[in-house]
Each structure stands twice: as C-alpha cells, then as structure tokens.
Amino acid sequence: MAGEKQVTVTQNDVAREAGVTRSMVSYVISGNTERSVAPETRRRILDAIERLGYRPNKAAQALQQGDVAMAQKHIGVVLCSPDVFRRPYYAEIIEGIHTAAHENGCQVRFIRFFEELKNPVLFNELIHEEEIGGLILVSTDQIIKGEDDYAIIERIRERIKKIVCIEWRYEGLTSICFDRRESARKAADYLFLRGYTDVAYLGQNDARVAGVQMSLQSHGFDFSIESFYLAQAFTMAGAYDSLKSVHKKRGSLPRALVCGSDEVAMGVLCYLSEERIAVPQDVAVISIDNIEMSGYTNPPLTTINVQKRSMGSRAVELIVNGSARQGENALDITLPTNIVERKSC
Fold first, then answer.
1. pLDDT digits (tens, 9 = 90+) for 112-148
2. Which of 53, 79, 259, 102 is nearest to 246 (CA)?
3. 56: cis peptide before it, omega within 30°?
4. Which has the closest alpha carbon to 91: 333, 256, 234, 293?
5. What's residue 68's pLDDT?
6. At what angle do helices 39-52 and 22-30 cross, to 10 degrees?
7. Residue partners of 26: CB distance under 8 A and separation at least 6
8. Please, are residues 325 and 331 in contact by the beta-carbon 8 Å criterion?
9. Which strands form 74-79's sheet, in the order they lie side by side?
C-alpha cells in the first residue's frame, strides 16, 4: 500500500530464517575465509538472504568495523587508457582480477583510467584507505609521460600500501609481468629450429626487439635493428597498414615473421590473405600472447602463451595475503611462457 513503511530485514531475521546464529550470518556476509562453513549451512544462509531480500546496512557496518576495515575487502583497478577495453589481451587480465576477487570474498570497487586520477576531486574520492585496501595498476607505463604523471604514482604510494603493477615495473612497487625479451627470443628461436633463416620482426618497440636480435645473433646473424625490425605496430589495423607499406617499399617480404602480439599477427594474416601470400608456405608467422582468437585464425597461429588471467589473479592474491609490499620488500614476479604450436609456421 502507498505510504506503508518498508520493513528493514536484519541479520537476526536471516538467522532465524536459516536456523543459524546471527554471528554465522555475519561471518558469511563478510566473506571471511579464516574458518570454514559447511556448504549446506552457507547455502541455507544465502537462500534466506534471497527470500527475505536482505541488504547490508553499510552505515552500521562502518560503525561496527570501521571504514578502513571494510575497505580491506575492496580493490581498485587503474587501466592505462580506454583502449584497453577493446584489447582481448587485457580483457583476460581483467577477467583474472574479477574471478580472483570473487573467490577471495573481495569486491572490485572501481575500474578507472590513469588520466582520470589527474582530477584532484576524483583522486581524493577513490585513492585512500577508507575506500580501498589495495590497488592494481595495469600497463600504466604506456601512459606515463612526465614528472606530473610520476608525481601521481608517488601520491598513490603514500596513500595505498598494497599496490601491484601488472605488465610493467615501477621501482619500489610489487609487479607481475612476463619476460618480453625472452618471449620474443623464444619465438625467433622456434623459427630457426623450423629451418627459417630470413627472419624479421613487426610489432611493439620494446624489449621484444632485443629478444629477436638476441636470437639472430645466437644463430650467426649480426644484424642491426634497422635490418630486421620492419615497423612498429600495436593493433590489427596498424599491422595491416605497416606490412602493406613495407611490402610496397621493398617489393618482397621476409620468409618468416615474429609478430609482437597476436593482434599484430592477425593484421599480418589479413594482409597476406588479400595478397594471396600463403601461410606458412610463402611467409611463416609466429606471435606472442595466445589470446583465445589466435586458435581460430586461418591458419591458426603458433604463438607464445602469456599467463594473462594468472597475472590478474596473482595480483589480487598478493593484495589479499599482504604480500604486495613496497620499497626493498617489493616483489618482482615474472610468469613463465610457453610455445603453443599451431599451423602458421
């Protein structure tokens, strides 16, 4: 009836409905994992919550636990740019973060972009210990351009003690990465082992370039970077355009290509297909990442598998167990990679 006062459902109501103690209800709701709860008991409590429409009283929780204690179950995520949402590689990292947060009884409090933190009002709203207990910074190195950006990182460090960098390293902060140089070296070595000698690289201008150069040198080719690095590319479109330009300028293509990422390789495959250049009969292709789509290209890509979901899940676990330390106690974790053999080389 209109104007009728809504009845507030309490934890005591849930306890009576489920036939358990109020403390047990509170324990399940808090997501505490320090002691086990029988699956049947947990299910009765959750069913009672659903039937009664119970909603936690945030103000009461804050009074009882304190804002800082409540925030320990909240994790913030800062991405380098909105472009990340279009990249399958980062989607798998974010999936790993969300899955691990759920499994550890935590919540992803927010997902923001680094540029947004330049707004002091938003920075003060999000970056403090009463809002989050830990922060994950994803590929932030791609967006840091000067002293003002570094100053933001330092301000974050002052406020949040548990920080994990994914896909980049920052001195004094815990990080989780894969070895880009070693992965590219491994990819190029694989081509040489398959009998290819005319090997070039197309992709990101980072440690991957040095990895390919190391492989070339170890196989007796002391080439300058300019001779094997065809062009910089980050996306499918960028790779397509870059390879087209290289082909037009040189009139020919290398016998084998190391692509800096699967997305770059997909742009390469698209161009080669349009030009009726057979893979791997005319040009062999190997890449790095092993995103899901790499198994469904034509032909399926041979690639270096990067533990993308594991980077996300490990970041959450480091925050939850308190291992995400700073300074000289910061951890630097490098996850191993492996070759996934398919049909592109």
1. 999 999 988 888 889 988 889 999 999 999 889 899 9
2. 259
3. no
4. 293
5. 58
6. 90
7. 11
8. yes
9. 107-113, 74-79, 134-138, 163-166, 174-178, 332-335
